[in-house]
Amino acid sequence: MDEDFEMPPVGGMNGDDEMDFGDDASFLKVGEEKEIQQGLKKKLLKEGEGFETPENGDEVEVHYTGTLLDGTKFDSSRDRGTPFKFTLGQGQWIEISLIMIDKAQSQARISLSQVIKGWDIGIKTMKKGENAVFTIPSELAYGESGSPPTIPANATLQFDVELLSWSSVKDICKDGGVFKKIVAAGEKWEMPKDLDEVLVKYVAKLEDGTVVGKSDGVEFTVKDGYFCPALAKAVKTMKKAEKVLLTVKPQCKTVFFFSCVFIDLGMVLHIISYSNLLINATDGFGEKGKPASGGEAAVPPNATLEIELELVSWKTVSEVTDDNKVIKKILKEGEGYERPNEGAVVKVKLIGKLGDGTVFLKKGHGEGEEPFEFKTDEEQVIDGLDKAVLKMKKGEVALVTIDPEYAFGSTESKQELAVVPPNSTLYYEVDLVSFDKERESWDMNTEEKIEAAGKKKEEGNAKFKAGKYALASKRYEKAVKYIEYDSSFSEEEKKQAKALKVACNLNDAACKLKLKEYRQAEKLCTKVLELESTNVKALYRRAQAYMELADLDLAEFDVKKALEVDPDNREVKVEQRRLKEKMKEFNKKEAKFYGNMFAKLSVKVKQQHRGECGSLALDVFLFSVPLPNFD
Fold it and tell me: Positions of the TPR repeats (predicted)?
């Protein structure tokens, strides 16, 4: 006789417990039994494969047999010959068959209402192919209610479970908007970023199977997106050749933006206005839907989409400079991990174009023509090209987009094949054929390090005299790096190294002052003073840096100390007079500012109305925030 019974909800089955109890239980030996949590025990019968275990949200497939402690079997997917599938950790409503053999050998089938909590905890500890027996206390099963007539109240249950497989299902935005199920695993570990150009195939369907979008190969920039926002969000979580099934929900999400406008008055920052902005966003097409176009069906309002998506490949696009004005797109991957360093000799093939496609430069592409050779960081090519080559590998081919600021700027430049107009953005196709790196300090003996440091110092001096302060600074920094660690130096070599460190750091500080990098200038002078505490040039230049940073008390201290060492130093005396003027000016500004602030602290606004006499008092307070000292 077949009977269906309605089972009561299982107590303690909510999904609030997000703890992971799999660490210990994932490393049992065959035949070993261990308690996982709250009386739940696991005994390993067969080891699984690898190290990965499923997580909440994954769709798992298992075979199982359920028994009471006395051995009475109440259910088995093995007997039915069909594996059981469910979503881990969601406490979803499911149906499984319950078979009871009574004295008359008749069978009864009932429906259970949930995956018990003991399953959610236990299966998260299993690897693919693993077989284990779970002993589940009633608190993690059916509790005091039991599941009449086959499972008594407060019954401890045993499940012999084999984890056949699982499919990873992730809420990729963590807001319930887009769920991703991996259908075919991808290659390697890299995933696209916002600037990258991806090539994808996709088929988008409604829940009834109606196709609303399709492409056998479309390329787009991740940050710009394509078709619907979910595609761009999904590809950022995918590997090359990965295939997934996306479920895109229609709900709108509210995004909140807050902005402030500040004004700097003296040493205080004032908020003069602020605004809020609320934007409703959706990962699909939301309440508006999408009209039919190009042979594709319309997307109705509030429709859920099912999207089959494959990430075929992508071209890596990166920012060469922090200001996003030199961009490199890889057309062909290079070899290994090595890249040129500053001072390396590189050989490249080049094609330079304007925005309209006009070729103004072509090198290394003619029949029998040798690649173009130049030394990096020597201004032998435009700055943007120089910086881009330093980010390339041997054999790499890249398209480099260079803003005028890193090219020829506002001046016209006559090139090999055409004239580059002022303010032109340039496009170079660069093939890095080979390079020879400049020797690093670890590849030199002590004598060679001191010699190399001396050469870099002289190069820096030449650049400084030519007004090329940034390049000069780099040379001085490189010189110091050669001799930074001198523990293996002889006493004579240590003296030479110290003199070079002092000279290079002082010269570098002068560069930083010219470049208005005052905090860096201060740090370089401090390094010198750690070696020579009475170095007048270091005290003088640090005082200059402190003055520009408005640390006037510290500047005064350094000036006084410098004059104690060298009372007749003309440059320091000039700086002392400048400092006194600056302090007077600052004190005057400060007095004026605070005088105005206190005058405005309380303002009374009188408003008289015809027929009545009175006043309205209004206190106005200026909201202010002290400015921090930025490094």
Answer: 536-569
pTM of the model: 0.64
First-to-last C-alpha distance (Å) of the chain? 82
Greater confidence (102 vs 496) lies with 496
Instruction: Clarify whether 116 is annotated catalytic.
Output: yes
In order of 86, 235, 533, 617, the CA distances from 18 in angstroms are 18, 27, 59, 56
Q: Which of 84, 86, 134, 159 is catalytic?
A: 159
Give the pLDDT mean for 120-138: 94
Rounded Cα distance, 617 and 602, in Å = 9
Residue 19 region by backbone torsions, left for phi larger than 0, else alpha for psi between -120 and 50, else beta: beta
Which residue type, as a one-letter code, is found at position 584? K
3-state SS class at 59 = strand
> Residue 128: is its pLDDT beyond 70?
yes
Query: What per-residue confidence (pLDDT) applies to 331?
Result: 95
Rounded to 5 degrees, what are φ and ψ at 440?
-95, 160
Which of 137, 148, 156, 159 has its CA nearest to residue 63? Answer: 159
Specify which residues 314 forms β-bridges with: 198
- Nearest Cα to Cα of residue 385 among 436, 349, 337, 333: 349
Q: Select which of 58, 75, 196, 377 is catalytic.
A: 75
Contact in structure between 21 and 36 (CB atoms under 8 Å): yes
Stronger pLDDT, 594 or 512, i.e. the higher one: 512
H helices of 26-184, where? 77-80, 117-123
Q: What is the pLDDT of residues 377-434, one digit of tens each?
A: 999 999 999 999 999 999 999 999 999 999 999 999 999 999 999 999 999 999 999 9
From 116, 123, 172, 450, the catalytic residue? 116
- Going by C-beta distance under 8 Å and a sequence separation of 6 or more, which residues neighbour residue 19? none
CA-to-CA distance for 385 and 404, rounded, in angstroms?
Answer: 12
Element (H, E) at 590: helix 570-599
How far is the C-alpha of 209 from the C-alpha of 293, rounded, in Å? 18
> Could you tell me if 328 and 398 are in contact, meaning their C-beta atoms sit under 8 angstroms apart?
yes
Q: How many other C-beta atoms are found inside a 10 Å radius of the C-beta of residue 6? A: 7
- Is there a catalytic annotation at residue 159? yes
| Whether 540 is catalytic | no
Catalytic residue among 84, 86, 134, 142: 142
**Is residue 441 exposed (0-12), middle (13-18) or buried (19+ Cβ within 10 Å)?**
middle
Helix (H) or strand (E) holding 216: strand 211-221
Catalytic residue, candidates 64, 372, 408, 482: 64
pLDDT in tens, 282-341: 778 888 889 988 888 999 999 999 999 999 999 999 999 999 999 999 999 999 999 999
> What's the rounded Cα separation, in Å, for the pair 627 and 269?
6
Per-residue pLDDT tens digits for 68-91: 999 999 999 999 999 998 888 764
How distant is the alpha carbon of residue 505 from its chain centre?
35
